[in-house]
Design goal:
alpha+beta
Length: 142
């Protein structure tokens, strides 16, 4: 059985984002220890699990499949895989102005853990804060 293809992840990412990552970036990430992807026809989640922490590196759902529960399922499956890998907590960064993503992560139990000022740049030259969110995994951390 083979894992997700960097080309396929890049194509899905391009369908979901204005500034997508290319296949070389995905190939480099997938070669790193602890990095894994869960891929479906309409999207994927890419995560890194190291020691007792995991991070959602990116989550992509094609526009036609948004608001269908696919993002929620991908997050749930990714968190479950991270837990099996030994993670006690999952982190992610999300743009403060990305209301849809923030709502998804709130529904899946993530809470505010910090802020990275002016972290993301926009095509118009403006900068947006990144919110650092965390999820303590059930049965592990209080």
């Amino acid at each position: 059985m083979t894992g997700p293809s960097a080309d396929r992840l890049a194509a899905l990412h391009a369908a979901a984002f204005d500034s997508p990552w290319d296949a070389a970036a995905f190939a480099a990430l997938l070669d790193q220890p602890g990095v894994f992807a869960i891929e479906r026809e309409a999207g994927f989640i890419l995560m890194r699990a190291v020691a007792d922490e995991a991070e959602i590196l990116t989550l992509a759902v094609t526009p036609a499949s948004r608001r269908s529960g696919e993002g929620t399922r991908l997050v749930a499956d990714g968190v479950a895989a991270a837990s099996l890998a030994g993670a006690d907590r999952v982190f992610l960064e999300v743009a403060e102005d990305n209301a849809a993503a923030r709502a998804l992560y709130a529904r899946t139990g993530f809470t505010d853990a910090g802020r990275r000022p002016r972290y993301y740049s926009r095509s118009d030259g403006s900068r947006v804060d990144a919110l650092l969110l965390a999820l303590n995994l059930p049965g592990r951390l209080p």
